[in-house]
Structure formats: C-alpha cells, structure tokens
Amino acid sequence: MEAINAIGRRKAAVARVFLSEGTGKITINKRDIVEYFPSSILQFIVKQPLSKLEVLDKYDIRINLQGGGYKGQAEAARLGISRALVKVNPDDKSVLRAEGFITRDPRVVERKKPGQPGARKKFQFSKR
Questions:
Q1: CA-to-CA distance for 49 and 56, rounded, in angstroms?
Q2: Any domain includes 56
Q3: How many other β-carbons are positioned within 10 Å of the β-carbon of residue 18?
Q4: Which of 49, 66, 88, 113 makes an SS bond possible with 82, Cβ 3.0 to 4.6 Å?
Q5: Count of domains observed in the chain
Q6: Mean pLDDT across the stretch 92-105?
Q7: Residue-wise pLDDT tens digits, 70-94
Q8: Confidence of residue 3 (pLDDT cuts 50, 70, 90)
Q9: Whole-number average pLDDT of the chain
C-alpha cells in the first residue's frame, strides 16, 4: 500500500497527513509524537481515531503541521488522520462520524474591526 494522504484543518492550523502500513509510529514535523506533544492529553487527541478503530499499531503516520497553537494542531492532526483512515476503509466513516472526528470545526477567530479595540468590544462611550 502506497502512502495515503489527507488534510485536516482547525482554527489556523493545517495538518498534512501521510498514512502507510507499518508498526504504529507517529512522526510530526520529523519529530516523534511524544517529543512534539509532551502533553499526554494532546497525544490522546491525535490518537483518538486510531484507538477507536483499534488500529494503533497497524499504520505509520507522518504529519506536517503548520500554523495555529498546539491544541488546534492536535485537532487538525486528528481530522487529517480520520480522513486518511476513511480513504483506506470507507466502512469506518460511520463509526468516526458518530464520534465527531469527521466534522471540520468551522470556528475561527473573528477579525478585529476598525474603530474598536477588538472584534466585538467597543470603546467606552462618553456622552459628554
């Protein structure tokens, strides 16, 4: 099986995922997942689709991550892995969708507007 690729996005983060048969090694930006995400919670988020389908040690995964913060990057990687797994076996889509791993989270930071200090906040109004 040649490498299957997929893209996951969340907030400002973009994850390009390359999935191939192997022993369960996950590499992010040429570093091991434990080194890239020291937090066990973020490692858990990235591995969620694999553990749900019980294929943790079946695939080697290479991920290129860009932009965003560490939480957004972890969730972008999760979406990318889910999409790649669906390309491998389309029957898994319903299981992953039930867990919410297939849905792209559309929430992004709202832009700052001119004439006010933030996206929604206004400067204090003074009548006199």
A1: 9
A2: yes
A3: 17
A4: 49
A5: 1
A6: 93
A7: 999 999 999 999 999 999 999 999 9
A8: confident
A9: 94
Q: What is the pTM of this model?
A: 0.91
Residue located via tokens 């990687």: 77
Do 85 and 96 form a contact (C-beta atoms < 8 A)?
yes
| Structure token pair of residue 28 | 């992010």
Please give, one letter per residue, the 3-state secondary structure of the chain: CCCEEEEEEECCEEEEEEEEECCCCEEECCEEHHHHCCCHHHHHHHHHHHHHCCCCCCEEEEEEEECCCHHHHHHHHHHHHHHHHHHHCHHHHHHHHHHCCCCCCCCCCCCCCCCCCCCCCCCCCCCC
CATH number at residue 86: 3.30.230.10
Decide if 91 contacts 77 (C-beta within 8 A). Answer: no
Residue 118 lies in a domain: no
For residue 105, pLDDT over 90 is answered with yes
Report if residue 94 sits inside a domain.
Answer: yes
* Residue 66: predicted pLDDT: 96
